Structure formats: C-alpha cells, structure tokens
C-alpha cells in the first residue's frame, strides 16, 4: 500500500465507502427469490473470472477486462440496485490481477464494479425497466438496456479516470476522454447480451437457459484473446530482429522504428486498409534486417567503402529476404525487404527493377528510408531540416523514388510533423521537433565527412 500515492489511497477509500453505502440497503430488502438470484449470478460471475487465475488455463482463456460484464448487467436488469451491486463483489475479489499491489487492486476493482452495477440498475429503473421483463416490449427493452449499459460505461470510465488522475497524475481530460470513447460500443454490446440473459432468466426456461448467451460471448472473447497473443508474438519476433540489427550497426540505432513509422504515415495517405498498413510498418521496421549478414567491420567503417565492400553491403536486401522467408505473417513485407533499394530508372539493386516492376511496399519503404536517413544526425554528418529532405526527395522523384509516395509523405508531414533524432552512439546535436513541414528551415549544414558513395537518402 505504501507504493500507492496518498491521493490515490484516499480516492480508493472514498470509492469503497460509497460502494458499501450502495449495498447496505440490500440487508433490509426482502425481494422474493432475490437472494437466490444474487447467489447464482455472483457465483456465475466468480466462476467466469476464476479460470484466468489458473496456472494451467490462464494462457488459454479470455482475461480481458469486460469479458463477463453481461453477467453484471443482467443482474442490474433483474435485481434491485443494492442486490445487483453485490453480484460484482466475489468475482472482482477473486479475479486475475497482474500488477502489484494485488490486494489494493482487487479492493479497487470490487468497489468500482459495485458502483457501476448499482448505477446501471438505478438508470434501468428510472427508464421504466421494472416492468420490461414482465411484459417484454422490444423497443422499450432496448432503450432501458442501452441506458443501463451507458450508465455502467460512464461509471467505469469515470472511476478509472479518477484513479489515473490521482495515481499517475494524468490530466483529468486525458484520463477520461479516451477510455470513454473506446469503451462505449463494447459496453452497449455487453448491455444487449445482458438483456438477453435477463429475458431468458425471467422466462419459463429459467436461469440455466441464460448460460447460452455467455457461450458465444466467451468464444468471441477467446478468439480475441488469441489474436492479441499472436500479435504480441509477432511484435516480439520483430523487436528481437531489430534489436539485433541496432546492436550490430550503431550508426543507425533507432532508424528502423522511424522508417516503420514513416512508412505507416505514407500508407495512411494512400488509404491502405489497416491490415496492409500494419504489414507495411513491419516492412519499414525490418527493411535492414539483412545487415545481420554483413561483416561488422564493413558496417562500422569510418572511411570510404571500397568497391568490394560496397558489393558486400549491397547483398543485405537478399540476406534480409532469406532471413524472413519463413515468417508467414509478414506477407507483402518480404518483397519490400528485398527490393527497397531498387530505383524507378533501373539503377538500383539487387535486380535493377524499373517503375511498376518494383513492389508498392518497396517503393514506400524506399522513400521512408531515405527521408529518415537525411533527417537523422549521425557521427559522420549533420541532419538536414525536414523541408530540405523533402526537396531532395522531390528532386529525385521519377528517377530514384516514386513521385506518388513522395507526395504522400509530404502531405503526412504537413499534418503530423516529424521528430528528428541522433542515431549514432557518438555525440551530436540534439533532435529537434519540426512541427510543420512547411516552416522555413534553419540553414543547411554541409556534412563534414561521408562513409562512402551514398544515395541522396544517405542509406546504402
């Protein structure tokens, strides 16, 4: 508890006291069948949360927050507010917590879900939900369920925002606005599932029939969790490869990540769908992975490259392509790794492709690679200002670079700006934020020395 700031401790205590005040009336209520329903729903919610804590099942069950909120919303639609609020307590206290202090986090989670369920039940009653389940009316049922789910969503996000503001010192506007917008649609879907559970629960088929609503929800959550685990594994694979390249070539440390970011900016301007955009970002990040096959003495050579050394370095796209050939999820990114040094006029390498023979991903990465190389300070030369780098790209458009990709990058930078950086281990001028690409540049600095015959982008 000592690691929790005093303001956050006070906030958690206040939420806990409010939660206790919300459930106390349940001790004085006598609703026919109410306590049986409380026990069944609380047990169901706890059973749903428990598998994520099992060491043997934890990696194969959905543990995302909100996976089983339909149970809580069904309680809000079936029970008086005080009794509905009690349903959240056992599952919240028994659920999985990954970060410390676990005890404080469980207490906070129980208080938060108690208050959210109580709020949902109160709004549901205010909208006339008390009679909806007795004589179901479709539009009225949807309206009341949506109101309850909205109240649940606002309570959860408002309480989360408060804890972020007190524990992590985030501005309230930042802590509240983003999570509320992201969680609105999922909570409305949970509200619909909760309404279906409540209708079946109150029907002649009884509580057992309500479990059939949870089954598709559980399966969809499991698929979603599997997707995120697979995506995390992909990211870990790429991160390991990039770290290996950065360790080997100290002159371009951080370059790969920025090329991935610039490639994604171009992709958005080209209206690529999210799946292709992600693949293009991977292509930008991994474009230089083939340097792992180039001798370190050649990569780190300070003087001009000999013809033989240059030929060795020019093999890195083919090395990279061979390294990632078996990584199926990279898709089109593999072609970009192989062809990102091709030029439109056929003077590039490794195969001297021309124009549209060069894959689209490779044409994007070529522009992003050159741009970051020009705008990054390295030990052997100073960075160019962003407008000067764009001017150089435009000058080489049509011969070295695809003009469409150059224009897309210019539009993206006009909107988002660019963070220039030092990419070598040696001292250099600090990176500077260029908020808009159209701002007049500082006077250009002529490079003090070069590491061989470089392209206009500064890459090999």
Q: What's the structural domain tally?
A: 2
Number of helices: 18
Share of residues in strands: under 5%
Radius of gyration: 29 Å
- The helix/strand series, from N terminus to C terminus, equals HHHHHHHHHHHHHHHHEHHEEE
Quote the distance from N terminus to C terminus: 54 Å
In total, the number of strands is 4
Largest sheet: 2 strands, parallel
Roughly what percent helix?
Answer: 55-70%
The strands making up the biggest β-sheet line up spatially as: 1-3
Poorly predicted regions are: 55-65, 422-458
Mean pLDDT: 80
What does this molecule look like?
It comes from Streptomyces achmelvichensis. This is HD domain-containing phosphohydrolase. By secondary structure, the chain is an all-alpha fold. It folds into two domains: 6-228, no CATH class; 249-434, Hypothetical protein af1432 (Orthogonal Bundle). The chain has 18 helices and four strands. It has helices at 6-23, 34-49, 69-78, 81-86, 88-94, 102-126, 138-167, 172-202, 207-248, 255-269, 274-286, 296-299, 307-313, 316-324, 333-339, 360-375, 386-396, 403-416; strands spanning 376-377, 418-419, 421-422, 433-434. The strands form two sheets. A two-stranded parallel sheet has the order 1-3. α14 (316-324) packs antiparallel against α15 (333-339) and α15 (333-339) crosses α16 (360-375). The protein is elongated.
């Amino acid at each position: 508890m000592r690691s929790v700031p005093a303001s956050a401790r006070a906030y958690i205590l206040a939420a806990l006291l409010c939660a206790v005040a919300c459930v106390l009336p349940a001790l004085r209520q006598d609703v026919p069948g109410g306590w049986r329903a409380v026990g069944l729903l609380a047990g169901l919610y706890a059973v749903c949360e428990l598998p994520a804590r099992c060491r043997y099942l934890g990696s194969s069950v959905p543990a995302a927050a909100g996976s089983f909120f339909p149970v809580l919303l069904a309680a809000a639609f079936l029970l008086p507010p005080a009794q509905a609020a009690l349903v959240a307590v056992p599952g919240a206290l028994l659920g999985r917590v990954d970060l410390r202090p676990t005890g404080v986090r469980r207490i906070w989670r129980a208080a938060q879900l108690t208050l959210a369920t109580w709020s949902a039940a109160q709004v549901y009653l205010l909208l006339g939900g008390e009679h909806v389940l007795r004589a179901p009316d479709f539009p009225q049922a949807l309206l009341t369920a949506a109101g309850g789910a909205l109240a649940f969503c606002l309570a959860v996000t408002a309480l989360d925002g408060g804890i972020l503001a007190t524990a992590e010192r985030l501005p309230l506007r930042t802590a509240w606005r983003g999570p509320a917008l992201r969680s609105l649609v999922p909570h409305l879907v949970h509200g619909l599932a909760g309404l279906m559970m409540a209708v079946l629960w109150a029907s002649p088929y009884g509580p057992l029939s309500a479990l059939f609503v949870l089954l598709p929800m559980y399966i969809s959550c499991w698929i979603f969790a599997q997707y995120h685990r697979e995506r995390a594994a992909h990211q870990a694979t790429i991160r390991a490869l990039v770290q290996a390249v950065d360790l080997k070539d100290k002159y371009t440390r951080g370059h790969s990540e920025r090329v991935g970011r610039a490639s994604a900016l171009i992709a958005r301007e080209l209206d690529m769908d999210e799946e292709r955009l992600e693949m293009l970002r991977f292509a930008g990040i991994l474009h230089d992975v083939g340097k792992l096959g180039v001798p370190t003495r050649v990569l780190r050579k300070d003087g001009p490259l000999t013809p033989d050394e240059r030929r060795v370095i020019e093999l890195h796209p083919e090395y990279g392509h061979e390294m990632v050939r078996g990584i199926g999820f990279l898709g089109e990114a593999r072609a970009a790794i192989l062809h990102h040094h091709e030029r439109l006029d056929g003077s590039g390498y490794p195969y001297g492709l021309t124009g549209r023979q060069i894959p689209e991903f490779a044409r994007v990465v070529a522009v992003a690679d050159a741009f970051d190389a020009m705008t990054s300070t390295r030990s052997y030369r100073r960075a160019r200002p962003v407008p000067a780098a764009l001017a150089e790209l435009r000058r080489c458009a049509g011969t070295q670079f695809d003009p469409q990709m150059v224009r897309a990058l210019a539009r993206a930078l006009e909107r988002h700006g660019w963070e220039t950086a030092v990419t070598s281990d040696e001292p250099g001028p600090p990176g500077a934020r260029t908020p808009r690409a159209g701002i007049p540049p500082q006077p250009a600095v002529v490079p003090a020395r070069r590491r061989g015959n470089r392209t206009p982008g500064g890459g090999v």
